[in-house]
Amino acid sequence: MAARTKYRKRALDILFESESRGLSAGGTLADRLEVNDPPVNPYTVGLVEGVAAHARQIDALLEEHSHAWSLDRMPAVDRNLLRIGVYEILYADDVPDPVAISEAVELAKELSTDESPRFVNGLLSKVSQIKSTLTLGEPEPVDPSGEEAIADGPAGTDAPGDGEER
């Protein structure tokens, strides 16, 4: 596994944990940095902090383009992979869009449902296609304590294949 792939997976773990505990995006990052076992790479920190700083805009974009799948219906792994992918596509100038998409799809293959890679690929490809038309807002201040509850509610439990198309 390539280094940045590991860093993305670690960012996914932190975002997933934060959401599972009802904290804001990245709300467990400080804990992971304090424990530092395994060490948290600066790239992971940048992804988590970036997703947290742009969470509202990222989630609004995902909601708008995820045809018939609200954020709370998506598997939590997909939701957080998409957040990382959108962050990299829109804000990480050193990551080509195809790389951000490919990395998210590969992690979806490894960690999520059978339908997830196609869904993640399609949604991130759409974001990449329209990014030149988007007006990117300023990052929001992030509460380092992670105390603020996630705006989109509890983690979704519906998995793809429950009879509805994504």
Automatic annotation (TrEMBL):
Chain residue ranges for the region called Disordered: 133-166
Annotated GO biological process: DNA-templated transcription termination; transcription antitermination
Pfam families in UniProt: NusB (PF01029)
SUPFAM superfamilies in alphabetical order: NusB-like (SSF48013)
Low complexity bias: start-end ranges: 151-160
GO MF entry, a single one: RNA binding
Domain NusB/RsmB/TIM44 intervals: 6-128
InterPro entries, sorted: NusB-like_sf (IPR035926), NusB_fam (IPR011605), NusB_RsmB_TIM44 (IPR006027)
Keywords per UniProt: RNA-binding, Transcription, Transcription antitermination, Transcription regulation
Cellular component GO terms, alphabetical: cytosol
Protein family per UniProt: Belongs to the NusB family.
Its biological purpose: Involved in transcription antitermination. Required for transcription of ribosomal RNA (rRNA) genes. Binds specifically to the boxA antiterminator sequence of the ribosomal RNA (rrn) operons.
Name under which the protein is recorded: Transcription antitermination protein NusB
Lineage, opening ranks: Bacteria, Bacillati, Actinomycetota, Actinomycetes, Propionibacteriales
